[in-house]
Amino acid sequence: MDTFEAILNRRSIRKYTEEKIPQEKIEQILKAAMYAPSAMNYQPWHFIVIDKREAIDQIFKINSHAEMVKEAALAIIICGDSKLEMNKDYLVQDCSAATQNALLAIHALGLGGVWVSSYPNMETIEGLRKYYEIPENIIPVSIISLGYPAEKVAAEDRFNKSRIHNNKW
Ligand SMILES: Cc1cc2nc3c(=O)[nH]c(=O)nc-3n(C[C@H](O)[C@H](O)[C@H](O)COP(=O)(O)O)c2cc1C
Hints:
Radius of gyration: 16 Å
Largest sheet: 4 strands, antiparallel
Low-confidence stretches: none
CATH topology: NADH Oxidase
Bound molecules: flavin mononucleotide
Strand content: 15-25%
Strand order of the largest sheet: 1-2-4-3
Shape: globular
CATH superfamily: NADH Oxidase
């Protein structure tokens, strides 16, 4: 898929079929995530890939904004390792770049996904740490819920010239 096609037509998908996602596609998504830019090129991310029903559903029990996971074939928790990147602001930005790369790859592969928040909600972070046995130095920054799409969401025109400032504000 063309890069602009992927960027301009990606939308959050929150309804999915029951079809399982092949391992090869999961690896393509994680590869795309790992090709994201990161401060000093530290690549401080880890990915928890969750495909067991009970473990996916647990995300909704931890974060009430994540009801869509109940239908999802897969969930990925994007985590930042604070031993690899000690600056938390960079860590979060790096993991966010990885999350967006993954979402674009998901769309390009004909799948659908949505970014579910974790950081900076401490209740969600602690809930995820406890259930998925995530060590203290690891921050679960974001979650992606994904599957084969069971809904179509139309692209929006978001181009806004009033947000562009030339040379000075
Ligand atoms: C940091 C962040 C946190 C988000 N958290 C949630 C969430 O918890 N639940 C949810 O349904 N969508 C969540 N979203 C998705 C946004 O609602 C969605 O991206 C936005 O409405 C724009 O729609 P689009 O993704 O279709 O372009 C989140 C997005 C971002 C970037």
